[in-house]
């Protein structure tokens, strides 16, 4: 290509040549430059379209209608009209009674349905998506007979509960899974000290992203002196609703994961296609990308999820059931009051928008409708951090009407949830009575690093790592880890052995618990929500540095970065009054978190990123608590 003359800018006005020849030279130069810019733009657009089209090209199957559980109206998903009310809970059936045994029979299957108008094969429990909501109280025993009629091995994890290790439901760690055509009975006793919002979901492969999940609510018992009916009048709300909110993919999860685990993804997380609340969503068929083959039936609906009355307060139990994206909830009409996060009470705070709730996390809100009978709605705003490329068909902000008489379409224009008062739930401390059990120092300190890497030896495929280990379920031998001597674990298992007590302390009759400080350094360019099975932990600090890796090495640094050793010299510079008791923690990019937990639940427990694609790519490790002789035996 001809280059512009280097002397053109040095000509004096009087020396400027003229005539047709020089004008043709100018025209040619400008034209060539324009062609170059146009060519670069075309190549860039082609590359983006190539990546995008490769992600979405799996056709879907035929329709089999299904009804949504816990609804006030039967819903035929084969028609374009659909209504998705909230799942109303019934605490009055559980808070006054004594502990009891509940026996549940679940048959798991797969059928093609239209949760948001697009046909997809979805996992069902007793014919329903999402699965049935379990309501219980502390001390209850649940016998759940799970029959697997899906053509792959599965397991169920009871997220947030401190139960026996062999019932935790993690394939390769606590069990071998339930093969197709087989059944297994989960025997779960809810601890006396636990109540709040929990959930269950598949913990085998990628089945959670295809719909295998549901709510698990443990109601706090009323005081013994409470008369039935009086409690309701003294509560700050009249009803409770369960909202299972999460991103949704139109392709099978295996296809989504296959796209991610290839060099062509460049480590970019697969962007979702839609948003569901209690298994129902709204997708604009006209926005579907031509490169993506979907069977879409436009579902025009008001998507009214709460049958609510004016001047009335409601408790909303929200769970992020998604595979990737966090979300913010906005209620511009009035304020939302946050009362619990991850089943633990927090210092109640009000705001018109609350977030970000990341995958696996839960929060309880008090919503009060305005006194006037006017339009009222909730806005769900999906966090864009993990969405590194555009999905034109995705509506990342959706508004759902509350009052049926003033309902409107979910695709209506959404106001920015951040323009009013905003509360970041990742920084809401636990109340003083919960912090009273937090010791000033730990007995053991451990440190790990996490990162997604693309090594040439792995063909530049993105694998998640804890330190130098990328986790996969135990394969050789094919035995769950908690039934296998440590010497026989394969090379994909990174484990921290923290113990419950030293043998010497046991011999001396000491019953002091072992407290562990776990420093997690996130070296990635994106944040991760981490979940520890079988335990809650105190989040002492989460610190993101403006420069460098933002990591913390407790074995070489006197004080954690971001701490104040002068003000809090007796706690290593940490303000423990701001600690939060959680079972999920979000660690931003280039940041670290310092977690402190009591190692008092024996077993082999998974600690992992709750973004499903990161977990499946290896971002997980194990925490061993107690001696192997203390572990309950896994079921094979």
From TrEMBL:
Query: Which InterPro entries does the record cross-reference, listed alphabetically?
Result: Cu-oxidase-like_N (IPR011707), Cu-oxidase_2nd (IPR001117), Cu-oxidase_C (IPR011706), Cu-oxidase_fam (IPR045087), Cu_oxidase_CS (IPR033138), Cu_oxidase_Cu_BS (IPR002355), Cupredoxin (IPR008972)
**Which positions fall inside the Plastocyanin-like domain?**
111-222, 240-370, 514-626
Q: Could you list the residue ranges that cross the membrane?
A: 34-52
Query: Looking at the Swiss-Prot or TrEMBL record, what is one Pfam family this protein matches?
Result: Cu-oxidase_2
**What are the boundaries of the region Disordered?**
1-27
Q: Which UniProt keywords apply?
A: Copper, Membrane, Metal-binding, Oxidoreductase, Transmembrane, Transmembrane helix
GO function term, MF aspect, one? copper ion binding
Query: What CDD domains does its record include?
Result: CuRO_2_LCC_like, CuRO_3_MCO_like_4
Signal peptide range equals none
Name the domain of life. Answer: Eukaryota
- Note the SUPFAM superfamilies from the entry: Cupredoxins
The family line of this record is: Belongs to the multicopper oxidase family.
Q: What is this protein called?
A: Uncharacterized protein
């Amino acid at each position: 290509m001809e280059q512009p003359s280097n002397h053109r800018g040095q000509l004096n006005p009087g020396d400027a040549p003229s005539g047709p020849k020089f004008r043709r030279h100018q025209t040619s130069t400008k034209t060539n430059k324009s062609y170059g810019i146009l060519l670069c733009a075309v190549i860039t657009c082609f590359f983006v379209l190539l990546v995008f089209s490769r992600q979405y090209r799996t056709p879907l199957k035929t329709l089999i209608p299904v009804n949504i559980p816990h609804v006030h109206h039967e819903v035929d998903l084969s028609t374009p009209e659909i209504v998705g009310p909230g799942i109303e809970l019934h605490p009055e059936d559980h808070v006054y009674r004594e502990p009891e045994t509940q026996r549940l029979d679940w048959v798991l299957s797969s059928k093609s349905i239209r949760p948001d108008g697009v046909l997809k094969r979805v996992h069902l429990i007793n014919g329903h998506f999402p699965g049935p909501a379990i309501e219980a109280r502390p001390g209850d025993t649940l016998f759940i007979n799970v029959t697997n009629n899906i053509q792959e091995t599965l397991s169920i994890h009871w997220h947030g509960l401190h139960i026996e290790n062999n019932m935790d439901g993690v394939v390769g760690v606590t069990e071998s899974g339930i093969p197709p055509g087989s059944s297994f009975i989960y025997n779960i006793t809810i601890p006396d000290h636990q109540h709040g919002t929990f959930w269950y979901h598949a913990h085998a492969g990628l089945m959670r992203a295809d719909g295998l999940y549901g709510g698990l609510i443990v109601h706090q018992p009323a005081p013994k002196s409470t008369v039935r009916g009086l409690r309701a009048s003294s509560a700050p709300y009249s009803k409770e609703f369960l909202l299972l909110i999460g991103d949704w993919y139109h392709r099978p999860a295996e296809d989504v994961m296959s796209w991610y685990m290839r060099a062509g993804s460049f480590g970019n997380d697969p962007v979702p296609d839609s948003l569901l609340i209690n298994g129902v969503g709204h997708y604009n068929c006209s926005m579907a990308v031509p490169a993506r083959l979907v069977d879409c039936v436009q579902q025009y609906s008001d998507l009214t999820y709460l049958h609510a009355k004016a001047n009335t307060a409601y408790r909303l139990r929200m769970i992020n059931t998604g595979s990737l994206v966090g979300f913010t909830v906005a209620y511009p009409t009035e304020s939302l009051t946050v009362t619990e996060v991850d089943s633990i009470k927090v210092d109640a705070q009000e705001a018109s928008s609350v977030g970000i709730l990341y995958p696996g996390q839960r929060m309880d809100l008090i919503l009060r409708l305005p006194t006037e009978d006017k339009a009222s709605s909730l806005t769900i705003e999906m966090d864009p951090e993990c969405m590194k490329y555009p999905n034109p068909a995705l509506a990342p902000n959706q508004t759902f009407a509350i009052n049926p008489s003033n309902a409107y379409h979910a695709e209506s224009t959404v106001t920015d949830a951040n323009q009013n008062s905003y509360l970041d739930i990742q920084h809401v401390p636990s109340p003083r009575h919960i912090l009273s059990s937090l010791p000033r120092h730990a007995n053991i300190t451990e440190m790990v690093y996490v990162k997604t890497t693309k090594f040439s030896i792995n063909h530049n495929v993105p694998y998640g790592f804890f330190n130098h280990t990328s986790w996969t379920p135990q394969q050789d031998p094919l035995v769950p880890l908690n039934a296998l001597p440590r010497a026989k674990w394969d090379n994909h298992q990174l484990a921290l052995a923290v113990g419950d007590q030293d043998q010497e302390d046991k011999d001396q009759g000491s019953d002091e618990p072992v407290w562990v400080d776990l420093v997690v350094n996130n070296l990635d360019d994106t944040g991760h929500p981490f979940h520890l099975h079988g335990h809650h932990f105190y989040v002492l600090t989460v610190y993101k540095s403006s420069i460098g890796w933002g990591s913390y090495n407790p074995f070489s640094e006197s004080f954690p970065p971001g701490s104040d050793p002068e003000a809090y010299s007796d706690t290593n510079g940490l303000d423990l009054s701001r600690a939060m008791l959680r079972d999920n923690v979000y660690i931003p990019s280039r940041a670290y978190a310092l977690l402190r937990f009591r190692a008092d639940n024996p077993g082999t427990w998974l600690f992992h990123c709750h973004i499903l694609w990161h977990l499946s790519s290896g971002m997980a490790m194990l925490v061993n608590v107690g001696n192997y002789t203390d572990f309950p035996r896994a079921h094979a």
